[in-house]
Amino acid sequence: MKNRIAVFAGIGALVLLIILGSVGYFYWMSIGYVDTLHARVVGSLVEVSFPSAGRVVDLPVEVGDTVAQNEELATLELAGLGTSGTEATKVLAPVRAPITGMVVEKASQVGDVLSPGQPIVTLVDPREVWVRANIHETRIAQVQVGQPVRIRIRALNHTFSGRVEQIIGATTSALAAHGRGADISTPGLVEVPVKISIASDGYTLYPGLSAEVRIQVSRRLW
User: Fold this and answer.
1) 15-54: pLDDT as tens digits
2) Structural fold of domain 50-119
3) SS3 call for 91
């Protein structure tokens, strides 16, 4: 009987220790870090167009292709007037990449007739990307520019280092009213977007990749 009491007492003490340890760990984490799963790699998108109307006769690039600055992306057939002013002539005009980057969208296809300024392809420079993380309104007061960040991107099976660069002065709810900022948040959840720089570590960081973010808000930890 005494042995049973001793066993139950030992089990109870162990359970209590586990509970206290778990509470202590989560408290320590809550004061030292701000975490969010509502984060994504983003970048500046560059829409490539042509100032004149024309028909697309060649479009050799595909989504995912890497192109160099001034590389030919497409060829347009432009309608013009002949030297006599009466006969229409066809002029072929190349459309070139304004930056070195990656094709992330083809807005046109061969045979499409485009109006002036209509997008043909969209580019992004993979070297000029960052992470947008939405932080819950109850935790945003702990976040400051300059704090170090750990960024886990499961698609690449790698953890990157980063830094808080900017705290956006509007909530996701306010941005959603204008069609921006809430696409990675749970509807109805009020969060504040934070811009985080990220060291690529030699990886290609594709815009749209989901990320898990941990911001160190206490200098005594990490």
Assistant:
1) 555 554 444 444 445 568 999 999 999 988 899 999 999 9
2) OB fold (Dihydrolipoamide Acetyltransferase, E2P) (2.40.50)
3) strand
